């Protein structure tokens, strides 16, 4: 979970999303946002409901952008360690995913670069697929190989999958 909930109600929304109860999370998030339109938690949970509950990439992107805007209005684009920066990091991760789901590969790379600049650990191999789709094959290969050296299961998996796909994409 993520710390620092602005209200108990927003904590309830997050718990629904974490439990995979996306239909209920959507219903309650929509009501919560109607009463609190500047709730970054409300918009973020609604984005998760659209993404994981409905596979609705355009609505996911719309809501996660609203979550980012609401968060940054409150804490700025570069939150301090005293701010609930984990929310911002997670919002940026979801934003990158949504951009990629809609084939907005340059935008996905920009969001990954921003997240990597602000927060650790860096997403290294995650750059490979959008680079491959642009097509910037040399950079994609470098990102995939670099991901293998990070040492995490996620980075290794993404790196290996990307290296397998590169020969088919690059021809």
Topology, please?
Layout: H1 8-18, H2 22-35, H3 40-54, H4 57-75, H5 85-101, H6 105-118, H7 128-133, H8 137-148, H9 153-170
Structural commentary:
- This protein is mainly alpha-helical.
- 74% of the residues lie in helices and 0% in strands.
- It has nine helices and no strands.
- It has helices at residues 8-18, 22-35, 40-54, 57-75, 85-101, 105-118, 128-133, 137-148, 153-170.
- Helix 2 (22-35) runs antiparallel to helix 3 (40-54) and helix 8 packs antiparallel against helix 9.
- The model has no long low-confidence stretch (mean pLDDT 94).
Secondary structure tally: strands? 0
Distance between the termini: 42 Å
Mean pLDDT across all amino acids: 94
| Inertia-based shape | globular
What is the SS-derived class? mainly alpha
In summary, what is this structure?
With 171 residues, the chain is mostly helical. It contains nine helices and no strands.
Main attributes?
171 residues, single chain, globular
């Amino acid at each position: 979970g993520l710390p620092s909930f602005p209200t108990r109600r927003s904590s309830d929304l997050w718990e629904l999303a974490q439990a995979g109860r996306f239909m209920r999370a959507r219903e309650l998030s929509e009501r919560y946002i109607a009463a609190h339109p500047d709730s970054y938690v409300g918009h973020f949970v609604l984005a998760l409901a659209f993404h994981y509950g409905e596979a609705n990439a355009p609505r996911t992107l719309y809501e996660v952008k609203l979550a980012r805007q609401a968060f940054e209005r409150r804490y700025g684009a570069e939150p301090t360690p005293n701010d609930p920066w984990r929310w911002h990091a997670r919002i940026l991760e979801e934003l990158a995913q949504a951009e990629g789901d809609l084939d907005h590969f340059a935008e996905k790379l920009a969001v990954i670069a921003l997240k990597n600049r602000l927060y650790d650990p860096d997403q290294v191999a995650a750059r490979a697929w959008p680079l491959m789709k642009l097509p910037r094959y040399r950079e994609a290969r470098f990102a995939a190989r670099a991901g293998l050296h990070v040492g995490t299961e996620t980075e290794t998996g993404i790196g290996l999958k990307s290296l397998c796909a590169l020969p088919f994409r690059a021809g």
